[in-house]
Amino acid sequence: MAWNFTESAESTVQAGSGVELVDEFGDLTSAGIDEAFKREAATPIQGQQYFTVKNVDKNNYKYQAMNGIGLVQINSDGAAMPIDKKSMGFDTTISNYVMRLAMGITRELLETDRYGVIGNHARSLTHAARKTIERILADAFNRGFQATGTIGSTPNLSMLCEDGYALIANTRPESKGGVGTWSNLETTGSLTADMVATARINFRKYQDNNGDLDPQMMSAVVVPPDLEDTIKEIVGSNLKVDTSLNNTNVVSDVKYKVWDWLESDKVVFEGDCENELEFHVRIAPGVLTYQAGDNPDLLMSRLRMALGTGCRRPGYFRGAIIT
Predict the structure, then answer these.
(1) Pairing of strands 317-321, 220-223
(2) 203 near 218, Cβ under 8 Å?
(3) Cα-trace Rg, the chain
(4) What pLDDT shows up at residue 289?
(5) Which of 123, 150, 202, 231 has the least CB density, counted as fewest CB within 10 Å?
């Protein structure tokens, strides 16, 4: 889902008394902001493709996971029926937060430069919204790697998933007792064909919260701009690029994406199960233009939005820290 800035932009102004240019001032300012929103909307937000985007109407949502049942047993018709039942898993709450930013435009600015400076201000305001959203979405990954399995051992994490661990972590607990732990953190190292192949194998070995094999396919490798050339070399040849032998490149069919906001030492692998990393939009970015107090020569344009991110089970992703 791409942001539709145009629909979310409101253009209202409170006019002052007299025959001055307050009405015209407000109309021109709002028109400039509407145009800026249309311009920004032409390019999708990069980070949205890695989230399940939901339009919500509450400021927080609580999720309660349920553990599935196990495997079907051999059981004759005359024997006692084997009974299994679901149990409660982890719970998590995803909250969204109001975010605001304003700019002021004076009458003198209108009089001396009717469109140029005002247009630049308007574009700056809406571009600030875009940059903020991109940073929020990328932050889930850039500060989402937990190298050890101890809760609280990695400071300054962007968020915690339902199990209390970062988006990418090892020795994660399963919610069903006695099942053990699992990991979606690959071994730290250089981005190579072997790393990509190992991640693909680990997706095929994925287990559900009952500890039962529940394979998934790796759909793509997500790299920062710094590693774009590297991944092109890795997947762009039918032969391995890191050896002089004529070994077959087993990952030449792997798809990749470049995410400009991903930090240079991170690589993310996408699977094909349900993506439970969520981006909640309660208020899409919108602009309100209003007169500042009792000053007829100062108009304020306020940008407001309410957004939040959170994750239930992060099985859709694997990741590696690149050295």
Answers:
(1) unpaired
(2) yes
(3) 25
(4) 80
(5) 150
